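TODO from last week: model Nucleoside-diphosphate-sugar pyrophosphorylase.
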Amino acid sequence: MSAHITHAMVLAAGLGLRMRPITLAIPKPLVTVAGHTMLDRALDHVERAGIDDIVVNTHWLAGKVTEHLAGRGGITLSHEPELLETGGGVAKALPHLGHASFFVVNSDIIWTDGDTPALARLARMWNPERMDALLLLQPVERAVGYEGKGDFFLDAADVPRRRGEASSAPYLFSGVQVLHHRLFEGAPEGRFSLNVLYDRAAERKRLFGLVHDGAWYHVGTPETLPEVERLLSSPQV
């Protein structure tokens, strides 16, 4: 694993509204899918990448996340009394994320690796001299449980371009990425989306993308759970 990525953040503060009624009682990251919570799956990826300093943010049913993580070492909790969205949540946690580059991983998606772990592939491609953000992009045609139109096009130089007015785009943002501290210089206060910073990075030609070569699952509603569990439990996964 690249030596310049030593920290990571796992986003676990969302409300999980589309997963109700399940998420009335437990936060979405603690929903169990094929024997493992989505939060544990994300943390396992990060820990296998050799990251020992991990921040997990909390909001909805935060006490349950705190209790669940009590047995894991190397984790700093960043509680948000008011939900800060993705950008605000990471900005709040910056003091715990080192001084340079770090992974950010959503805990409400599930992915499996190809021959080389996705985080290792991101670290290998990451160049902080040229990049402020490197997004792992999932081909829409291989995205399980996804019903959107895609987020990005990707050119031959690995530069993403938003779908814009196009009817569809071939790649979606997977929820896995590498960011640099400098991306947050001049960021909005309080609640905001990381999309604001992606667009700034794109304007500066410092936003890049890498296509994921493994499987990716969006567990958006209770109805999608059985199919995702079936696929994750199959021998080839």
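Done. The CA atoms of residues 51 and 169 lie 33 Å apart.
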